[in-house]
Design a protein that fits this description.
It is a single chain. By secondary structure, the protein is mainly α. 68% of the residues lie in helices and 0% in strands. The protein contains 5 helices and no strands. It starts with a helix and ends in a 9-residue tail after the last helix.
Length: 135
């Protein structure tokens, strides 16, 4: 495993600097683009692969160091876990949301369901079907 200073130098930072997460990501993307093995001819690929692997290792080393310091990633995961803060106990509002939907569904079944059946029978009587496969 690389030391932090070596990892910073590989990604283009000064040895004693403290880069933020966006800076580390930007430097990693730039270095990966410069040293990707597919960009080199066949006789230079082995050297490019070793550089590419060392840059990936440096990135993972710096990324773990940045996350342990408590940057945006750690606080973001806390926000995602906790979710929206509840107001006045939280679960009381779900009843207010569920009641209108219940009325809509029950009203449709009670009122609309009977009218649909009546309308279908009237239309069937007024316009009989000559197709033997339809009811």
């Amino acid at each position: 495993m690389l030391a932090d200073d070596e990892a910073r130098v590989l990604l283009g930072f000064p040895p004693n600097s403290c880069p933020t997460l966006p800076q580390v990501k930007a430097a990693y993307k730039r270095k990966v683009w410069e040293t990707h093995p597919d960009r080199f001819p066949d006789h230079e690929k082995s050297n490019a692969e070793s550089k590419f692997k060392s840059i990936a290792e440096a990135y993972s080393c710096l990324l773990s160091g940045v996350r342990q310091d408590g940057s945006t990633t750690a606080s973001y995961s806390h926000v995602v876990r906790s979710g929206v803060p509840r107001t006045r106990g939280g679960r009381r509002n779900q009843f207010l949301i569920g009641v209108p939907f219940l009325f809509i569904i029950m009203g449709t079944v009670a009122l609309g369901g009977l009218n649909v059946a009546r309308a279908y029978k009237k239309q069937k009587e007024a316009y009989p079907s000559h197709n033997p496969f339809l009811p």
